[in-house]
User: Which sequence fits this backbone?
């Protein structure tokens, strides 16, 4: 390890994670995932590690994002950064949903301003046939190694979340070749060539099952499946083109690891949460475009729910932010099975002090 | 009128609108807006006039989009183009939601690839103070004149829809200065400077009331209010920052024109349709991210509903397209008050023959 990396791992002025908590395991997240009572509502934030933190931006100055993800010591450092600042109830491994597609044979590049680009998108039968179903141990070992390093660092005091993109969301990137406003190619492919579509989804599903299995074996305590793009679909299309695959995926992961809670998350699907839930998951993550009480009503009191503050509320003045958090907690009305989170990831320009204020507001709430 | 424009109004090979229908007024849309029975379900399509039509693209080769909108003879031609091809139950005036902002003092430019840009976005108290509340008769007369020309051309055989952007959607463009992925500035402004926000919304509301009033006076039979960006909001934010303004707007327009049905449309809000309905509107337009039956259930059987096919279904093979249309009609279960439409606008690459197939499928449906 270079001196530079060593410095990065212990930025001056930050307490070491090892010293910041009592030696007791923080079980809030796990208990909430099991719909069991907790002392206060657990809170973590999607993209809690990332560009809004100056210590992350400092690392990015000398390393491209894929280098951060693929260098376990650096990914470990990035994973731990937000834990030094905020009293979060979970760590989430610093990784990305796209490297599994790279491992399948797609050429990934992060282009400044345009986001991720795949230079050989999947459009034909030959393209689908050419996709490998990689072994995560072989092709994605950098993230597994990060999990092992972070787990050692956390030493049982805080749960670590592993994650993967869901097959549909991966298919969006694979077929469109990057982000896409209308998902035109992916929807056209599903409807025009359903056999080819399902063959693609099968391979993606197999890849993600193996990847989540490997993360569980490497030591994560919770898994999250991100179907970030599912909300571009009508309920009918989700039912026909996505549901069977996500169902198989979650079923297989849960058979392998029945004790590891799985959070199933999407955005834009808040009018068909009950259908989304049919795909599985111990916890359903919901976006901010629904009253939290309505989300719980759609899902039923016995389904744990993660969410659902608009990430943009972190740009509001502190009293408005606190009010918004309190409104969600009030809507939950003390029912067990609530994990507080944003309805989407933390944005790069988010003020750090607002993140701290939010975490404290959740922990200090008494209904 | 130049010879070129005259040619444009009567492209060779197209039947004149005057000859394409019987002399009876097509009352389907109006009746459905009043929740009265119709012989078949009325259908029109958001962006039914536009870039997917070769005759539109031909006009665009020689005229920038703002010229088409601001030249009544050209806008009339574009309005009529889809009616020569498809058996649609309404015309919608060819216009855009942004010229009212231009009339308020913002400098609008359509930049190829980037969409609309405002060079002097609204960010400060001084910016809001500087905004004019324009008279539509003076500043937006080109669209009013288009309405008069189209009305004469249609001669009472087909209803004409006028429209405007809702205050929130206009505020998004005014504050962000163009399209925006996360609506970061607009949400920050609303929360950080609520007084300034409401002052801006007041001016936008006054502008739109006058504009819709003028369109009604000019001759449209139906109005649609597009709150295309409302779905970026949490229900709480909509309630606080948008609802009172849209409510006042719709209330004032309905007081001036009680007999003109008003369709209130947004996307991304399908989990809070009942709240959206509180803002008003005789008909609620819904996007494709909800089962049509659930939309009707949320809104109640006596609220007419417009929607809600995914525009991407027009890229699917014809049988799949027909099935999808039939599923929506079946979910409606013959209740009066259904206007068939897409859940969003027709996309530029849409195959024309699929639009024809959709319109026929709706008209030929027998439950």
Assistant:
């Amino acid at each position: 390890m270079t001196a530079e990396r060593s410095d990065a791992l212990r930025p001056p002025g930050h307490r070491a994670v090892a010293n910041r908590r009592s030696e007791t395991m923080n079980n809030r997240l796990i208990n909430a995932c099991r719909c069991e009572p907790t002392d206060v509502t657990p809170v973590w934030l999607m993209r809690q590690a990332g560009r809004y933190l100056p210590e992350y931006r400092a690392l990015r100055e000398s390393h491209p994002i894929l280098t951060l993800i693929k260098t376990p010591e650096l990914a470990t450092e990035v994973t731990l950064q937000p834990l030094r600042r905020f009293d979060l109830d979970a760590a989430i491994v610093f990784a990305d949903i796209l490297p599994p597609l790279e491992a399948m044979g797609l050429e990934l590049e992060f282009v400044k301003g345009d986001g991720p680009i795949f230079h050989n998108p999947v459009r034909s039968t030959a393209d689908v046939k050419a996709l490998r179903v990689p072994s995560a141990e072989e092709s994605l070992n950098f993230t597994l190694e990060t999990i092992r390093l972070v787990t050692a660092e956390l030493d049982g005091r805080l749960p670590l979340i592993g994650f993967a993109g869901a097959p549909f969301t991966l298919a969006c990137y694979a077929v469109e070749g990057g982000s896409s406003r209308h998902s035109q190619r992916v929807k056209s492919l599903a409807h025009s060539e359903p056999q080819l579509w399902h063959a693609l989804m099968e391979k993606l599903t197999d890849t993600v099952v193996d990847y989540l299995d490997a993360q569980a074996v490497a030591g994560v305590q919770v898994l999250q499946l991100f179907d970030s793009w599912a909300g571009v679909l009508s309920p009918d299309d989700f039912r026909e083109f996505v549901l069977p695959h996500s169902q198989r995926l979650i079923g297989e992961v849960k058979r392998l690891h029945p004790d590891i809670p799985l959070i199933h998350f999407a955005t834009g699907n808040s009018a068909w949460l009950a259908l989304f839930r049919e795909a599985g998951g111990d916890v359903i993550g919901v976006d901010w475009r629904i009253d939290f009480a309505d989300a719980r009503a759609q899902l039923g009191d016995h389904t744990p729910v993660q969410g659902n503050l608009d990430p943009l509320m972190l740009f509001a003045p502190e009293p408005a932010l606190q009010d918004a958090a309190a409104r969600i907690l009030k809507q939950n009305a003390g029912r067990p099975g609530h994990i507080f989170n944003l309805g989407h990831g933390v944005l790069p320009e988010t003020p750090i002090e607002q993140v701290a204020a939010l975490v404290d507001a959740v922990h200090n709430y008494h209904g």
Summary: Residues 22 and 151 of chain B are 16 Å apart (CA to CA).
